[in-house]
Amino acid sequence: MTSMFSHALIERFSISKDIDCTDFSASDCFFDAIIQNAFTPLHRSGHVWRTCIAPVPTDLQRLPLHTVNHSELYGVGRPYSPPLSDIEEDEIMHVVIDTAFDPSSAKNKCFKPPQAGERVKSLEDLCNKLKTFYHNGVKKLPGAYLRISMQIMPNHHLDLQNKDGSLMVFVSTALPTHICASLEVNLLAALGNADLLGDMDTRLPGGRPFQAMHLSWYNRHCTLGLNAPTDVQPWLLEKEGMRTNHGQVIPYISQDLQQHRLIYGTISKVYGELFEWVRQLMENYLQEEFKMLMEVTSVLPGGVGDP
Predict the structure, then answer these.
(1) Spatial CA neighbour of 100 closest among 128, 120, 130
(2) Is the dihedral of CA 103, 106, 109, 112 positive or negative?
(3) Best CA proximity match to 173, nearest among 87, 240, 51
(4) Cα angle at 301 between 295 and 302, to 5 degrees?
(5) Which range among 16-25, 92-101, 181-190, 298-307 has the greatest average pLDDT?
(6) pTM of structure
């Protein structure tokens, strides 16, 4: 201990000069004996700490972080569009509405272009309209449809079911605010151009062309041919005297994905939380559809799972 502490300190507390460091009890006794917490706090200068001590005024206008990000990125060039809902996430409501639509009816196998839809004013109004919308499982007016505004169902999961209990449509407006607020910013960051998006009326002449990227995996694993047997694995099909192109059934990525791998990888990362939210939503509320989707994706050729 003389190599660690002064002789005066050891003699002052009458402690042994040699202690077995592997003996924890002896070490504790030694250090307990020489505790010298004789520090006194210095006087705090009120002038220096004045800005930190003063309480924050309660009448200040507080700005959400996503609005600040929007103003920094776009300035005043583009108006801010608030999220669909600022309600706390624990107040999400799951609304299930049964309809009389019969998906197995032959009259529901064809499609007629819709006319101007009837706007729904509330979820209660939607339930009332759906009660008289179908007759014998078919729409009374083939071209009629209902327009459901997202504003009437903030922070909701709307689940419309067919007559047989199967899924007609599932709509959710409960995307967390912090994810919703960063969707556009993340897209611009992934594309590397903050001025990429702009308002354009496609009905006006002289519109500017825009680039479209198809970031796709082609997992085609079938071949078409005249009178080709359907009970034979495609890899085993051959035509006598001709060469079979088996390369067409090998999974491959699109040309756009080859050219923009970095953008694809960035989008997959920045929207990772969004994809996980969608996955959990399906797993919790669309269990049958989620199970089927997982079974299909697990056997995709190439073992590629899209985000």
Answers:
(1) 130
(2) negative
(3) 87
(4) 115
(5) 92-101
(6) 0.61
